[in-house]
Write a structure and sequence with these properties.
The chain has about 325 residues and is an alpha+beta fold. About 40% of the residues lie in helices and about 30% in strands. The strands form 5 sheets. It has an 8-stranded antiparallel β-sheet, sandwiched between helices. A hairpin with a 5-residue loop joins strand 6 and strand 7. It comes from Halomonas salifodinae.
């Protein structure tokens, strides 16, 4: 993960005093520790709830970053301008400051610009003499403000609507809205809604193919493994790649199912970890009865009465309904 440019500014917030930016004079010195810090920040960021979208027309942040990428200004200058605007915004919404890391780096074939506000926490260490000493530590688990820009997607001839992501799970709704406004960002896709629609499409596909329980379970695990891995890496689910994972014998089958039934899904979907964690199939077979249904149906189309040990199916599948009527 080569870091092309990086810098760390400090934002002081204390009591009733106005927020103050202590800007770095120069870029951060490359080092293995800096590489590890960025990797840790990225790992923490991927595990957070994010909004996905793009720059709105007239975005001041987009204009500044575009000037930097076009060589019209340098990284230090553009980072200071952005840090100053962030300092003013943070003074209205947070009570604690930290260090603001901005990095321009490559990862595989992709190229990113990331920013993250790093808070501190008190900790302890042991010195060379075995004595316990106080040690101020970065608290990566408590990211309150961070964003990542996929440069190649943004600068592509036909840019996507989800090349920009930013945190929205800490600090409250007003804080998240203020951060999005500062970025000049608009949500281009609802990650949770898209993920749930994808899982609904998969459930329909499994039902349409009338798969055996073990086959359905195997395909479900393949889907969740792929989607969860993409979420850990901070990458989108690609429908064509997912189709290959779901069925290695007919790699286009699931993709064609989605396309023909027009679920309205984007070709690439940011995975929503909450939706993925809630999705799995309940299956069981006993006494000539075989039952299989998706967990998200429990409490809606399917109810379980533990007291009487009864499973109530509210929406009987059409094919089963016709068979029952025939008897």
């Amino acid at each position: 993960m080569p870091i092309l440019h990086s810098i760390i500014h400090r934002i002081d917030l204390a009591g009733e005093q106005p927020a103050r930016l202590v800007a770095a004079e120069a870029e951060a010195t490359p080092s293995p520790a800096l590489d590890e810090l960025l990797a840790g920040v990225n790992s923490a960021y991927h595990g957070k709830t994010k909004a996905w979208g793009h720059f709105a027309a007239g975005s001041r942040t987009a204009t500044a970053l575009g000037a930097y990428l076009d060589g019209e200004t340098d990284f230090v200058s553009v980072s200071r301008e952005l840090a100053q605007r962030l300092t003013e915004m943070l003074g209205e919404h947070l009570s604690v400051g930290g260090h603001l890391l901005l990095a321009h780096y490559r990862h595989g074939d992709a190229e990113y610009l990331s920013l993250a506000l790093l808070h501190h926490r008190e900790g302890w260490g042991i010195d060379a003499d075995g004595a316990i000493v106080a040690a101020n530590q970065l608290n990566l688990a408590q990211l309150s403000l961070a964003a990542r820009l996929d440069i190649r997607q943004w600068r592509a001839e036909t840019p996507s609507k989800q090349y920009l992501s930013w945190l929205r799970d800490r600090g409250g709704k007003k804080f998240a809205e203020a951060f999005a406004e500062l970025l000049g960002a608009e949500e281009g896709i609802d990650a949770g809604g898209e993920t749930r629609t994808l899982l609904k499409a998969f459930s329909d596909y499994v039902e349409q193919e009338d798969l055996a329980d073990d086959q359905a379970r195997e395909k479900t695990e393949a889907l969740l493994d792929y989607a969860s891995d993409q979420a850990r890496r901070g990458e989108s689910i690609t429908l064509e790649a997912l189709s290959e994972v779901v069925d290695d014998h007919d790699s286009k089958a699931f993709y064609e199912h989605i396309r023909h039934l027009d679920y309205g899904l984007s070709p690439e979907i940011p995975p929503d970890k909450k939706a993925l964690n809630q999705f799995r199939r309940f299956t069981g077979r006993a006494g000539g009865v075989s039952i299989s249904f998706d967990s998200h149906l429990l409490g809606s189309s399917v109810e379980y009465d533990e007291t009487s040990d009864r499973l109530i199916i509210k929406q009987v599948p059409k094919q089963l309904k016709e068979q029952l009527k025939g008897r």
